[in-house]
Amino acid sequence: MTMKFAERMESLKASEIRELLKLTERPEVISFAGGLPAPELFPVEEMKKITGLVLEESGMQVLQYSTTEGFAPLREKIAQRMEAVGVQATGEDILITSGSQQGLDFTGKIFLDKGDIVVCESPSYLGAINAFKAYLPEFVEVSTDDYGMDMEELEKVLSTRKNVKFIYVIPDFQNPTGKTWSIERRQKLIELANKYNIPVVEDNPYGELRFEGERPPAVKSFDTEGRVVFLGTFSKTFCPGLRIGWTLADKELLQKYIFVKQGSDLQTNTMAQREIDKFLELYDLDAHVEKIKAVYKRRRDIMLEGIKQYFPQGLKYTYPEGGLFTWVELPEYMDAREVLQKALELNVAFVPGGSFFPNGGKENTFRLNYSNMSEEKIQIGIERLGKVLREMLTEKTV
Amino acid sequence: MTMKFAERMESLKASEIRELLKLTERPEVISFAGGLPAPELFPVEEMKKITGLVLEESGMQVLQYSTTEGFAPLREKIAQRMEAVGVQATGEDILITSGSQQGLDFTGKIFLDKGDIVVCESPSYLGAINAFKAYLPEFVEVSTDDYGMDMEELEKVLSTRKNVKFIYVIPDFQNPTGKTWSIERRQKLIELANKYNIPVVEDNPYGELRFEGERPPAVKSFDTEGRVVFLGTFSKTFCPGLRIGWTLADKELLQKYIFVKQGSDLQTNTMAQREIDKFLELYDLDAHVEKIKAVYKRRRDIMLEGIKQYFPQGLKYTYPEGGLFTWVELPEYMDAREVLQKALELNVAFVPGGSFFPNGGKENTFRLNYSNMSEEKIQIGIERLGKVLREMLTEKTV
Q1: Complex-level ipTM
Q2: Could you tell me which SUPFAM superfamilies the record lists for this protein (chains A, B) (predicted)?
C-alpha cells in the first residue's frame, strides 16, 4: 500500500554512522568509525554483584513501573556529581533519560516548530542533527576554532536572525572534532545568550574523560538565568547498554521535559537506574573513570603518533585532551567518502565528515575514534589509512 | 527567563494517571487507579539467575551499544510468539522499543502533521492520546459497543473526512473499558481500512491475559496489504520495569520506525533485551502468564462481585474477559472527579473517565484496575467506593 507520512519523514534517513557500524561488525575490520567505549573496561563483575543485590533487596520495585522523573536517589547522586563542574543542583532538577540522545530528541520536541532556527557548531554531532531534524528546523552553523565557537559570528546570527530557538553546543571534547571550549568562550556564550534571550543546550557526554589539563566549569555553571539545559550520560563513564542519561534544567523547564518523557516512553528502565545507583553507592565511579582514561590516553597517543608517522605531511588534525575522537582535514579537493571506499578494501573504517555539517559540504574531513580498538589495531589501522591517503594524494599530484 | 516553546507544548500536560499515581503512593491508599501489574508475581528469582547468566556469558556485549533494531534472537522469538494470534512474521519485521508506549510516540512522529486526523475508539487509551497530541492532530472518536467500534460510524468518518492518517484501536481488553472486539468487527475494520486506504495501529498490551474464552486472532492477522502496525509489550506478561516492547510492521514501514528510533534514543537497553531473551530460552513464559491470569481472574471476580453487592443498583459496568480494567458509567448528571474527591477521603483511588475521551466530555465515567491490589483490599476498597456512590446518589435524590 502507499501511505501518507508526516512531512518530517522526508528529511529523515538512517544515520551514516549507525549504518556503517553494521558494515563494520565483521571482526577483521579495524573500525575507527563508531563512538563505542572499550568493552573490556566495563565493570562486568561489579554489575553481577549489583544486579544480584538490587533484585535481592527490592526485586518487586526494580521490575515495576516507576516515576517518569526517575529513581530519586540516583537523581540526587547525579546532582551531587554535577558539583565537579561548578553546577549547584538537587535531584529535583534532574530527569533520567534513555541516554542523553533522548534529551536531544526531547529538546527538539519542546522547542522546535517547522522553520525555527537551531544554532550549532560547525561541524556538530550527527545524532543531535538527526534528532532535531525530526522537528523540521533550519540549522545555522557557526564556525569554531580551537577555543570554541566564533563569538563575533554567533552575535551576528543572534542579532540578525529571528526564531532562533536555542544554541546547541558540545563544549568538552566535541563530537566530531575533539576540541574543547575555553572558559572565556563559555562565559561569552552565556553573555550573548542572556543579551539575546536564547536558551542554550549543553551536551556533555565526554567531559569526565580528560587525560590532561584541568576540567573547565560547565557552561551551565555560568548560567544565572536558568537558560542552560545540561545533558549528561553514563554511557561513556560506565556503560552505554544500560541507556542511562540525564537532563538537568531549572524546575519549570524540566517540567516540560518530564511531560514529554511521559508521552514518549513513560519512564526509563527501572532496573538500570537502580543498578547505576547501587554502583555509585558501593563503588568509586571516579576511580573507574581513571582506569578508562588511562587506556584511552594511550590509544589517543598511539593514534596521533601514527598519524604523524604514516599520514601525508601537511594534513590538519586535532589534538584532543580527552574524549573519544580526533578530526582530520584533507586538502579541499579530496572527498573522504572516496578515502573510505579504499580504506574499507583494507578493512579499515571511519566516518566521513560531511554529515556532521547539517547544511552539507566539507566532504574533505573525517572523524577517527580511538576508544574502541586495541593499541595494536590502532597502529595497524592508521598505517593502512596512511597508505591509502598517500596513494590518493600521489594520484592527484601526478 | 521567558522562553518560546514549540506550539505542541501548549497542548501537553501531565497525564492525570501518572500524577494520581504519585498521590496514591501512600501505603494506606487502596488504589484502583494505575495499570500496574501485581509485583508479587514478578519472576525475581528467575531474573537473578538470568542476569547472572547473561553477564557471565556475554558481559561485554550486554553492556555495550547495540543495533537500533534490537537483539536479533529476541526479535526472532517475538515473531514466533505472534503466531498465537495468527500473525506470520520474522524477526526482521520487529523493532524493539522502550515499552509499547514508545511505539505510540513513533507512530505519531511518523504519520502526523498538524491538523491530521487520528480515528480512535471512544473512549481510548490516555497514554496514546497524549503521545499523539505532541504532533497536534485532531481526534475523531468513534462509538464502541460490546463488540468493538461502530462500523457504520467508522465508514461515515472515513468516507467524509480527509487527512485521516490512521485508525488507532486496542481490540483486546481495551484500556479503559476492558472490552474486546469480535472477530467480525476485526475483519470489517480491515475491509474498511482497505477500501479507504488507511493504516491501522493495533495496540495490544493485554491480549495474552485472557481468563476465559478463546483469544481471537489479531487484527494484524487479517491484514493482507501491510497496513496494520502491531504494538506489543512484555510489561504485562513479564515485568514493566525493563521497558521492553515491540513494533511489528511490514519491512518498508518498519524502516521508518527504525529511523525514528535512531534519532529518539539510539536503541533500547541492551541488557534488558538479553534478559528477556534468556528468560524465553530457559523458562516457559506461557506458564508464567498462566500464573498471572489465575491471580488476576480472582481479583476481577472479587471486584465485580463487590460492585454487584455494594454499588448502587442500575450502574453500568463492563465484564472484562481478561486484562486489567473494568469501566463504570454513572448517571449522566454525576461527575466522577467529585466521586474521586470523596473516595480519596476514604483512601480509595481510581481514574475518572473524562480524560480517556480526547475531545472531552463523559465525566460520568471511571476506570477501575484490579491487577495491583490484594483480594482483601479490593473487597474493602469496593465496599468503601460503594458507600461513597450510594451517599452521592442519595444526596441527589433528596
Answers
A1: 0.96
A2: PLP-dependent transferases
